[in-house]
Design goal:
The protein is an alpha+beta fold. It has a single domain, classed as 3-Layer(bba) Sandwich (YerB-like fold). Helices cover about 20% and strands about 30% of the residues. The chain has helices at about 1-20, 20-45, 80-85, 145-150, 165-170, 205-210; strands at about 70, 80, 90-95, 110-120, 120-130, 155-160, 175-180, 185-190, 200, 225, 240, 250-255, 260-265, 270, 270, 275, 280-290, 290, 300, 305-315, 315-325, 335, 345, 350-355, 360-364. The protein has a 10-stranded mixed beta sheet with strand order 7-6-3-5-4-24-17-20-21-22, sandwiched between helices. A hairpin with a 3-residue loop joins strand 15 (about 270) and strand 16 (about 275). The longest helix is centred in the first third of the chain and has 26 residues, at about 20-45. It is elongated, with a radius of gyration of 45 Å.
């Protein structure tokens, strides 16, 4: 029975296909196209995209090492290396009598202390470290207060004798004494000036003398230093300092281009004989107690240990401060009203000991 039905079914199917051949072909083609499209879509959308990884770039971090900078503890000026910061400091007593002018070696120096030596006549303690002038003078005698200022710089002190008190102090074994009386070969007398205004020396001589005595380095704390820059609010471009009399009173004219103070005394530019007008970067007026010792030469006694008021002139401005020096060997410190340290501009620094009694400092 089953076998009889099957041929009839196939016969009908063949008859239908034969009768509707064209429609069957079209339908079959459409069906196959749909199947092919479905398969293609499946393959396309089911396939995972191929991700090509970019090669990893390793960035090498290179540390930039800033070169170490070294500054002179005397002036705050940039120096070549650490050894330069430890060079021996030498202080030289330079005369300021009218007969000694113009002096040699003043302009090329680091720090200068000016004070009355006797009879209103001022004298300079001039400190050198990197600076090495080969003509310095006239060299004169020392006083106790100059020794106290020099001691804070661990300095040798070049001089020609001194007051009785100064000689007793400097030869007590606590200082580096290179007195001309004991080391004559390091000094000479010029023939273009008369004694006692004609003793000179050089750093060829003094360096050799210091080395022979073992004074080859100095260890000390200098003044705190900062870079200088002309102020936008100038209030001290002309300074006048009364220290004793017209021959020794000084003035300073501020130069904004060089950020320095052109020094004059006795109403004229104060000249270094070889290098021209002296122009420090900083001027400090130290107000000090001063008295006459009463000895036969009218030597002065200046207070160095203790404290007092001072005015710092730098960058074209004036700053009132307190100076403090706690012992002969300790450095002078400058502080403001709040007790904060007041730094000084880098460069040559000129400190004037102005008597509280009779001295004066004005500016505009």
């Amino acid at each position: 029975m089953e076998e009889t039905k099957k041929p009839k079914l196939w016969a009908r199917l063949r008859q239908f296909v034969s009768k509707h051949r064209k429609a069957v072909i079209i339908s079959s083609a459409v069906f196959l196209a749909i199947c092919a499209g479905g398969i293609a879509a499946y393959v396309l959308f089911s396939k995972k995209p191929v991700v090509t990884e970019k090669p990893k770039v390793t960035k090498e971090v290179v540390a930039i090492v800033e070169p170490v900078k070294y500054y002179s503890p005397l002036t705050g000026i940039l120096v070549a290396n650490e050894a330069a910061t430890k060079q021996a400091v030498t202080g030289i007593m330079i005369e300021n009598s009218p007969e000694a002018r113009p002096q040699s070696g003043l302009k090329d120096s680091g720090v200068v202390f000016e004070a009355i030596a006797e009879g209103g006549i001022t004298r300079f303690l001039v400190l050198y470290q990197q600076e090495k002038p080969q003509l310095i003078g006239p060299v004169r005698s020392v006083r106790p207060y100059y020794i106290a200022w020099a001691a804070a710089f661990d300095a040798s002190i070049a001089h020609v004798g001194g007051s009785d008190e100064a000689i007793a102090e400097i030869r007590n074994g606590n200082y580096r004494d290179i007195d001309q009386f004991l080391n004559a070969s390091a000094y000479w007398r010029s023939d273009d000036r008369y004694a006692p205004h004609n003793v000179y020396t050089s750093f060829n001589n003094l360096d050799a003398l210091n080395t022979s005595k073992g004074y080859t380095t100095s260890s000390y704390t200098g003044f705190t230093r900062i870079d200088g820059k002309t102020s936008t609010t100038l209030d001290a471009t002309n300074i006048n300092i009364t220290i004793s009399s017209v021959l020794f009173n000084s003035s300073y004219a501020y130069d904004a281009v060089t950020n320095t103070y052109a020094r004059s005394q006795a109403g004229e530019p104060h000249m270094d004989r070889e290098l021209g007008q002296i122009s420090p970067s900083v001027v400090v007026a130290l107000r000090v107690d001063e008295s006459n010792t009463g000895d036969y030469k009218n030597h002065e006694d200046v207070t160095t240990v203790g404290s007092g008021i001072a005015t710092i002139f730098q960058n074209g401005t004036a700053t009132n401060v307190t100076w403090t020096k706690n012992s002969k060997t300790e450095q002078i410190k400058f502080t403001d009203a709040a007790g904060a340290d007041v730094p000084l501009v880098r460069g040559q620094t000129w400190l004037v000991a102005v008597p509280n009694d009779g001295g004066d400092v004005t500016w505009q």
